[in-house]
Amino acid sequence: MEGCIFCKIVNGEIPSNKLYEDDKVYAFYDINPEAPTHFLVIPKDHIESANALNEKNVDIISHIFMVINKLVVDLGISDKGYRIVNNCGEDGGQTVNHLHFHVLGGRSLQWPPG
């Protein structure tokens, strides 16, 4: 989608600190990390938010979670724990209208988050 910052990252128009990439998803480190380990996983296809999931695109969610599983093991945060966050809509704190999952770990995370 034109103007989408995450689409521009996927297309290489905006630099990122890439962690992982395959034909379906792109993972990169957050530029303003909230934990020692903080990365995002996004679908390469533009999906605006969790509200835009449907029968044609919902399979991307299982793929994203399998990639997250691989990455947390690779980064050594799987045993102690981590948090996966998806913000949906304005009141949910979504600031980029492209489906994405934050993965945070490497420290004790408090609840409620805010």
UniProtKB/TrEMBL annotation:
Residue ranges that the Swiss-Prot or TrEMBL entry lists as coiled coil: none
Molecular function via GO: catalytic activity
Matches recorded under Gene3D superfamilies: HIT-like
One Pfam match: HIT
Superkingdom of the source species: Bacteria
Domain HIT: residue ranges: 5-114
InterPro entries listed in its UniProt record: Histidine_triad_CS (IPR019808), Histidine_triad_HIT (IPR001310), HIT-like (IPR011146), HIT-like_sf (IPR036265)
Protein name as it appears in the record: HIT-like protein
Organism of derivation: Clostridium saccharobutylicum DSM 13864
